[in-house]
């Protein structure tokens, strides 16, 4: 602190007034601070900020890694819109998200409400529900791929056979492929959501239930008027997070079906991947980044609208 | 010397509120406590026979369903891993109709080299963990403890990346790894290709910043007065006080590295460096089904055992640090 007066005499007069000269800056630990920021600046600079800027630039360029990139304006976006696969991918992704919400949203909530009333061996319930979350996601998909064997001796088809239900084609038919993918994704993800709901339910004040009972509330009334409203905040968040996650689904279509049969499971992320990295379409980096930016903007707008809408309901 | 005293005090008081009695977990609480943390059903409800029977029946059904859905697929995998391929193909749900094939496991270990890929997974996760921890702690320290004037803008830039979906980075990041600045040669097929980008996790930085912000600043002043330099402040005061948040960041980092598929699948094309998640899908077509299922079993058994040992930590973390009562 005292050193600043000594140094002020030496540098150029314009800098004196603002005390922004390099020597005082170093003496006050500015350089040390910068040293601590170095990992952040390097890692984020090279692997986050610069790629984000590059993504925006590349979406307006034609790049093939050999000749210098050419600026092509909105051509990449137009090319994506004119690609019939794009509309298939949008439809498929929306279908996946719709099914994932339809199956995957109510199941954890119902299980969590039931589990919250368990008095003995509650830990056992939680462990069983969480087991699918623990195993490697890739292994989970590969395991279900074997379960989905379309032959009459496949695991699921054998079980269906016990109930005299004919064998199903599962992931080998365009009509059943997507629901099969969603079923596995729900199995793999539900445990995590159940645990989150359970944690949220323990924070519901018992007095609220007591008060409801004094008012003569039935069991359903307590769930409907106390439990669910108290979980409102977390329910809103898990809903939008699930939409954002399903809009970027990649693992299931990539490993189960590779987008087939007949492109019935080609999702937006799979299409981006194919544009950029697979042999038939490969190297279309411009289209790939253009599509990824469109997805990002769509999700951002969706989230903003969603939070605007739900803010009104959750503030009461 | 004197500067470490407040740090220890904080450490001692930290774990007390949430863990209760150390060592032994209170499995069954006394009746009074149970009545206190009631949920939807009241004690009066529980005394009504209709409610009690219905609830118990629902719970038994739920337990059966959870066993069928959560446990059964894993048990089937472990069973099939030691069943001859032909039996699994013709009668997948029979229990060892023609004996046990232990050599599946031996083949998965010796011929498929599942152990090597396991080691690669650990190396990948360890590196990602180290890079994430270094970036998050140094950045958190600089932005929340040292607080330079431009810190707000930098934190804003970090926060902004949180709203960019990872897929936007896919292509430019791949090209960056292909032609990294300054180094001059491609990082493809090296662990650096997964380690370094993992460090750019805005979530970690913000988590650590929030924790550092909550540390009492008087301790930093006291340490300064006692002559601790910036590095000493970081290493001997702030880091030892941050064990809880470092634990959280570590769990997130290792979990993410363990589960990651798309990125390592893209940049680790060399078999000798691939983690389990990348290798397992590739060997499916070329491996005997029994051996393949044994390989999947090995890849599953280890995390499941770790989960069962540390289940309370996992479930607590899964509940976003909420109080999941076991």
What does it look like?
The complex is a heterodimer of chains A (316) and B (326). Chain A is mostly helical and 316 residues long. Chain A has 2 domains: 56 residues, no CATH class; 240 residues, MetI-like fold. Chain A has 16 helices and 2 strands. In chain A, strands 1-2 form a two-stranded antiparallel sheet. Chain B is mainly alpha-helical and 326 residues long. Chain B has 2 domains: 62 residues, no CATH class; 173 residues, MetI-like (MetI-like fold). The longest helix of chain B has 33 residues. The N terminus and C terminus of chain B are likely disordered. Chains A and B meet through α4, α7, α8, α9 and α10 of A and α5, α8, α9, α10 and α14 of B.
In short:
With 316 residues, chain A is mainly α.
The total strand number of chain B stands at 0
Task: Classify the beta-strand content of chain B into a percent band.
Answer: under 5%
Q: How large is the count of helical segments of chain B?
A: 19
Q: Spell the H/E element sequence of chain B.
A: HHHHHHHHHHHHHHHHHHH
Based on secondary structure, the structural category of chain A is mainly alpha
Largest sheet of chain B: none
Identify low-pLDDT runs of chain B.
1-35, 320-326
Q: pLDDT average of chain A, as an integer?
A: 86
Query: How many β strands of chain A by DSSP?
Result: 2
Kindly report the oligomeric state of this protein. heterodimer
- Please name the fourth-level CATH homologous superfamily of the largest domain in chain A: MetI-like
Strand content of chain A: under 5%
Give the % helix of chain A: over 70%
Distance between the termini of chain B: 41 Å
Give the largest interface pair and sizes. Answer: A-B, 101 and 100 residues
**What topology, given as strand order, has the largest sheet of chain A?**
1-2
Major β-sheet annotation of chain A: 2 strands, antiparallel
